[in-house]
Amino acid sequence: MGADTKQLRIRIKSVDSSLHLTKAMGLVASSKIRRANEEMAKTKEYLGALESMVKELTLAPECRKSPYLRESGSPENSDRTKLIVIAGDRGLAGGYNANIFRLLRDYDKCEIIPLGRRICDRTDSEFVSSETFSYHEAKELTKTLCEDFITEEYDRLGIVCTRYVNMMTQIAEVRWILPLTKDENARKSGMIFEPDELTVLNHAVPEYVTGAITEAVRESFASEVAARRMAMDSAEKNAQAMIDDLSLQYNRARQSAITQEITEIVAGSGR
């Protein structure tokens, strides 16, 4: 019986140590949530303005000549696809990274550009942090991507990232960036571009791609932080429940041991 109480004490101490760790990680995630959401909101607003301009430009007949607006072929069925895959730098974030990897199974023939330690390790690539990935790094990446697209090195560019819905829900998805698609239901606003629509579009697309990458990285990071916060909350509740259960078992075992000792003493004194 003494061995049982000893093992229970060791187990309680171990779970309690894990509880302190999950609390600390939860507090760190909480401290990052506000800033991550602010950065996400800023990049969303900027990307929204770029998308509106690009959508307006693609309606101009002259812009059909742009290398970014391909109407021939079927890029959806092309194997020459590049995917920027955004995962986390760390684990312990619930299903955040697992959802990205699960979605990626449907695109096993695509060329992957990894962002985040988890996907870099998975693809044996040089580490690029998704948490600290900057606008300037996105711009350098975009320069190469646009040049390769113009020279038809590949047919389609997409981003595998996580969409932030709220603190409880984050959804892994693919966002297709290139080639540009023309919205047949949209109407021109009458906006005038100088010197002409084609020139403006060809100069705007690299900025649009940069904005799309930056926004996807910021939104994915906000999703990662939220997922980790919820995972740590769940782990904290489970650890506390486990401690309560183990404490109950320990108290029962200890009480049983005390009762047995008293019984033996009483039995011995009556001889």
Could you walk me through the main structural features you see in this protein, from its secondary elements to its overall organization?
This protein has 271 residues and is α/β, with parallel strands linked by helices. It has one domain: ATP synthase, F1 complex, gamma subunit (Pyruvate Kinase, Chain: A, domain 1). Helices cover 59% and strands 11% of the residues. It contains five helices and four strands. It has helices spanning 2-58, 96-104, 117-122, 135-150, 197-269, and strands spanning 81-86, 111-115, 156-164, 170-178. Strands 2-1-3-4 form a four-stranded mixed sheet. Strand 3 and strand 4 (170-178) form a beta hairpin. The longest helix is centred in the last third of the chain and has 73 residues, at 197-269. The protein is elongated and about 105 Å long. The two termini are 25 Å apart. The relative contact order is 0.19. The model has no long low-confidence stretch (mean pLDDT 87).
In short:
The protein has 271 residues and is α/β, with parallel strands linked by helices. The protein contains five helices and four strands.
Chart the SSEs and their pairings.
Layout: H1 2-58, E1 81-86, H2 96-104, E2 111-115, H3 117-122, H4 135-150, E3 156-164, E4 170-178, H5 197-269
Parallel strand pairs: 1-2, 1-3
Antiparallel strand pairs: 3-4
Helix pairs in contact: 1-5, 4-5
Distance between the termini: 25 Å
Derived structural class: alpha/beta
What is the CATH class? Alpha Beta
SS field, number of helical segments: 5
**Which fold name is given in CATH as the topology?**
Pyruvate Kinase, Chain: A, domain 1
**What's the number of structural domains?**
1
| Number of DSSP-assigned strands | 4
Unreliable stretches covering 5 or more consecutive residues: none
> What fraction strand?
5-15%
Q: SSE string, helix = H, strand = E?
A: HEHEHHEEH
- Helix-residue proportion: 55-70%
